[in-house]
Amino acid sequence: MHRISWTDRTASVLVAWLLICRVAAADQVFDLQPKEVADGVFVLEGELEHFSFRNRGNIVNTGFIVGDDGVIVIDTGPSRLYGEAMRQVIAETTDKPVATVLITHLHPDHFLGNQAFSDVPILALPGTVKGIEEQGELFNDAMYRMVGTWMKGTEVRVPAALGSESRIVVAGRELELLNLAGHSGSDLAVFDQKSGVLFAGDLVFYQRTPTTPQANVSRWLDDLAVLHKVPFRVLVPGHGPTVNDRRGIEQTALYLDWLTTNLRGLAESGVSMAEALEPAPSGAAFFSIPVFLEEYQRSVAHLFPAMERESISRGLVVQQADE
Amino acid sequence: MKPGVLLGLLILATTVQADASFFNSAGYRDKHYRRPTPSEAPAGRLINTLELAALIAEAAPVLIDVQAITVRPEVEEFGLSWLPNSQRMHIEGSTWLPNVGYGELDQRMTHFFRSNLESLSGGDPNRALVFYCVVDCWMSWNAIRRADAWGYQNLYWYPAGTDGWVDAGFPLVAGDPAPLAPLPEVEQREFFQDIHRLDLAALGRDAAQQDKKVLLFFETEHCQFCLRMRRSVLNDRDLITRLHDDYIAVAIDIESQATARDLAGNAVPVRDLVARDYRVVGTPTMVFLDADFDLLHRHSGLIATPREMRRLLEFVSTRAYEEEPWRTFKRR
Asked: Based on the number of CB atoms within 10 Å of its own CB, is B263 exposed (0-12), middle (13-18) or buried (19 or more)?
């Protein structure tokens, strides 16, 4: 781009022209391609990466179900711009209005697009509502730091709390709500009985290494056993490709099981946290899954200290006095 | 279970009304600096990209980039310095004054901002000044509010920042932060008036004459809390100014072998003065006396920050110690 000379009297005309070009481009901040995974059920798949300026925060799967007389939205993405782009994709896919939004959990890539749906009910489990009230602003701070300008205009919108019912009917669609907790402390999975699609939220990661900052892993493994029994035909993970079988559940469970068994073994043998950062060869099957090393090392930080304390308190490891 | 009907529980998602808590008592934004900004300037005029381009062409304003970066905190040991973690790109001709848009500025940053504004404006309060950072950034909002409070009258706020500028297709250039300078020496005043160090009789006369109270600061050379107070509390400019309004302050080394003069003018060993007259057993100890050398208050132990020291001076000057202990007073 050539340097604009400020003494040039035509500068403002040029400015106006440039602005028009840019406004046209702004619609394509997110190139969201809806994938129809079952009749009338669509998924918008994100990158298998961490948040970055380059991927604009789009690392998450969101989705929507076109019901009899309205649309049910599952998660709203990482930012206002994403939410607006999602809303546009929905409008291009169906004439039916958005009826309601369900938020699976409190993590920022799943709810910071809420502003684009402020005219419809946005609902989440009570634990998720509380979590967003307490941590939402901090998540938004962190997203601005990582994603920068693509967060433009994003503010926290706290969802309203769902009741205790395990089934709801919305837009003529009967949805089973699974009230789970292993990934973030409050995790909603949504099973659309008519299409057979299960939106698993971040309880399932497929071909993308799971994250554990707020995980209770043994609870998470129990939750996966619950999901395994759901008679779904299509499984939409929170991150990674949609599948027609239980592979996503199994991969997540195998990884979490290896992660905790391996780390607990290391803690009990007195290995230090620094040494544990090098993944053991027993996990080789997971090494090629995207962002494995980063997530594994983050998980060491999340999980290892508690395991170390437990090993010491059970007398398995003798804490050595400093010399 | 019978399927519930959703309609009954549909409530619109609530907006967070936490905004008031994002500001300090002086009205400056002091948290969540990256958020959508208001559609009106807190002072001066809000301008968009087109208006800024025209302003640059016609009025050659002073462009001030206030994007924040890390500052090395090891002030005393290494000298204050900026630690940018990537190359900042900003509008050509801008001066980058990082961190002047935080909710609260310490005296060093206040001096940094004020002195730079003075030189950039050539001392002319009507010089056009433009403040910006990036999109959704309250740092420029705070900075323009501050400039307004200091009397600058021709202010422009460009909230779209470098993101808005580059979105419009305009170029950015690499920028470096303005250098941090130490506080000017001439403004440095000492906390202690050491001229009176060992002559309490002379000190008493001066205090009576100037109608000031007396602060005796008992220390030793090897007392770490004393050194820490000298390094990070007793050198605070604002504190020194306040102290000198009300007190004459003297530091006394309790292990000194020297001879002092007591209030009656008698020559006595410093150690006698310490033990007999002021009963000091540990350091740091601060003894507050009125102009007649009657005891007002005695504080033993570390005062960790200038703010806490100001609070202690307030505790003494308002005679709050007659009502409650320092322990509860300082927390309020």
From this structure: middle
Cβ <8 Å between A158 and B6: no
Question: How buried is B147 (Cβ within 10 angstroms: 0-12 exposed, 13-18 middle, 19+ buried)?
Answer: buried
| Closest CA–CA distance from residue A316 to any residue of chain B (Å) | 42
**CA distance linking residue A179 with residue B196, whole number of Å:** 75
Q: Smallest Cα–Cα separation from A150: which of A54, A24, A34, A45? A: A54
Exposed/middle/buried for residue A45 (C-beta within 10 Å: 0-12, 13-18, 19+):
buried
**Residue range B92-143, pLDDT digits in tens:** 999 999 999 999 988 788 989 999 999 999 999 999 999 999 999 999 999 9
Task: Label residue B61 left, alpha or beta by phi (over 0 means left) and psi (-120 to 50 means alpha).
Answer: beta
**Sign of torsion, CA A208 A210 A213 A214?**
positive
Which residues are CB-neighbours of A274 under 8 A, at least 6 positions away?
Answer: none
Q: Tell me how crowded residue B200 is: count the other CB atoms within 10 A of its CB.
A: 26
SS3 A93: helix
Contact between chains at B6 and A168 (C-beta distance less than 8 A): yes
Question: What secondary structure does DSSP assign to B55-66, as a single string?
Answer: HHHHH-PEEEE-
Q: Is the model's pTM score more than 0.80?
A: no
